Amino acid sequence: MVYNCHYHVVWVPKYRRKVLLNPIDVRLKELIIETIQKWKQECVEVEVMPDHVHLLVGCDPQFGIHKLIRLIKGFTSHQLRQEFPDLKKKLPSLWNNSYYVGTTGGVTLEVVKRYVESQKGK
User: Fold this and answer.
1) CB 84: neighbour CB atoms within 10 A?
2) Contact 82, 31 (CB under 8 A)
3) Of 3, 15, 99, 115, catalytic
4) Can 115 be counted among the known catalytic residues?
5) Which intervals of the chain form a coiled coil (predicted)?
6) Which of 21, 29, 45, 72 is buried deepest, with most CB atoms within 10 A?
7) pLDDT score of 3
8) What pTM does this model have?
9) Helices 24-38 and 65-83, interaxial angle, to 10°?
10) What integer is the mean pLDDT of 9-19?
């Protein structure tokens, strides 16, 4: 099977709390990349803001972007709450249930990648 499916995904912590600060942001980025690689998908770019995450990812349509995001959010929530116990005190669960996902077909992958990269400076 041949495919070229790239997605821009954004999700937020519960109540959009600004809890994704250093060193949590650095560890979250590592965990996201680790999860994507474990499931043999393609991490193009990931940026962590204090109150949301931007991910540009290539995903096999038979695997499913919904499944990949569920795995990422579940694994990162579990790991971060173990490694940073203060998160348990601040939030009943780390992630909001919903997320945004859009395909990158309307613009080039490079344009979306530059947009995601530029978010850190804001």
Assistant:
1) 16
2) no
3) 115
4) yes
5) none
6) 72
7) 87
8) 0.89
9) 140
10) 97
